[in-house]
Design goal:
147 residues, 6 helices
Length: 147
């Protein structure tokens, strides 16, 4: 079975929560955890690679917390997924044809390449702003995100 890790699913939810609140100042991790019904301890591990990749900013002090490093419309789901999962490919021979002696004659490798390209294209075309919009539609319009 192919599926995203819990780390990535929670990371996207956390980034969506921060996108909803973008422009309202830093958000405490405990508030994100409460809002999204996630473990604060687990989120504290997820923020590390997101900060390191430049997707999140951490602000210290009494009015500190986390905020997106860029506008929600400028952060793609591909950036988040690749930050937390690594490059998107289904089999080793797609990014590295030398890993398999049959790569040059294997039709199934071509299929896996097409699937990876479609997944990548979809994630690249969707931003956090798109997710905020989708979330707003699903919840009947309530959201605290403003562009």
């Amino acid at each position: 079975m192919m599926k995203l890790s819990t780390r990535t699913r929670y990371g996207v939810r956390m980034m969506l929560d921060l996108a909803r609140k973008y422009g309202s100042g830093p958000v405490l991790l405990k508030d994100v955890a409460h809002e999204e019904d996630l473990s604060e301890k687990y989120l504290s591990l997820i923020v590390l690679p997101l900060k390191a990749s430049g997707l999140l900013k951490a602000l210290r002090g009494s009015s500190g917390g986390y905020t997106l490093s860029r506008e929600p419309s400028e952060i793609t789901l591909k950036e988040i997924v690749e930050c937390l999962e690594g490059k998107i490919f289904l089999v080793d021979c797609v990014p590295d044809p030398k890993s398999c002696t049959r790569s040059g004659v294997c039709a199934t490798r071509d299929v896996w390449q097409v699937v990876a390209d479609k997944m990548t294209g979809t994630l690249e075309s969707m931003t956090l702003a798109d997710l905020v919009r989708m979330s707003r539609e699903k919840s009947g319009g309530s959201s605290n995100y403003n562009i």
